[in-house]
Amino acid sequence: MFTGTSAGWWFLISAGICEICYAAAIPRTEGFTRPWPTLYCALFIGLSLYLLALAMRTLPVGTAYAVWVGIGAVGTAIYGITFLGEAASAGRIACLLLIVAGVVGLKVFSPAMA
């Protein structure tokens, strides 16, 4: 299906989505005192790190890590705005767009590893 760098990017996007899943659920754990939300978080933390490690087989570590964090940060902020009623001010949206621009720039300007 996907090979080389292409697979790396798919692994990385999937890792970022897993990061959003666990970050959005952390408040439901109530300090990791509730078993089911805590288990959900642990599962997605592990899956996210595993997929990130797979992505780093073909992508530079700096690029992979920065993109992973960017996907998680933007996705979690959008989740907060959409479902938790967090502020969606023009300044906040502009900052999220800057993160997206950085992630896209890293994708465009990152060479494949040899």
TrEMBL record:
It is found in: Cell membrane. GO terms for cellular component: plasma membrane. SUPFAM superfamilies: Multidrug resistance efflux transporter EmrE (SSF103481). It holds the Pfam family Multi_Drug_Res. Gene3D superfamilies: 1.10.3730.20. One of its GO terms (molecular function) is transmembrane transporter activity. Keywords: Cell membrane, Membrane, Transmembrane, Transmembrane helix, Transport. The keyword Aminoacyl-tRNA synthetase does not apply. It is a multi-pass membrane protein. The keyword Transmembrane helix applies. GO terms for biological process: xenobiotic detoxification by transmembrane export across the plasma membrane. Coiled coil: none annotated. The chain crosses the membrane at residues 6-26, 38-56, 62-81, 93-113. Belongs to the drug/metabolite transporter (DMT) superfamily. Small multidrug resistance (SMR) (TC 2.A.7.1) family. Gdx/SugE subfamily. This is Guanidinium exporter.
